[in-house]
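Troubleshooting log. The previous structure file for this entry was overwritten by mistake, so regenerating from the original sequence record. Sequence copied from the archived sheet and checked twice against the printout by T.R.
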Amino acid sequence: MKIKLIYLAAGNSRRFNSQRMQNTEAENKLLYLLDEKPMFRYLFDRLVKVCQRHPEWEMIVVTQYPEIEHQVKALQENEQQGERFPVKTVISKDSYKGAAYSVKAGIRAAGDADAYAFFVADQPYFTEE
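Regenerated output below.
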């Protein structure tokens, strides 16, 4: 069964306390360093591992931020040879208008999936279980 995990990493961070932003140029909670790792990477890393265990699963990262796209592409390039890195990145220029635009971009990018599962990138403590 083809399952696409759509990872929504495009939020506008409107409610995030901008005074907490010490380590990034933009006020973007997804890039906020939490224990020296950007917030979006916590659940991202867990979902990559889940997809690696299921050959027909893939993660679609939807973002409006070039910084996130670049970090994901760098991870793809650095991944060990022979290890499947089932991640595709989609830039959604309309995501600033609201979450529905990110959802639509993710579904379009997912193509002919049998099922979709949606995750938001600002939940660093979301466990695999």
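The mean pLDDT is 88. Archived copy saved in two places this time.
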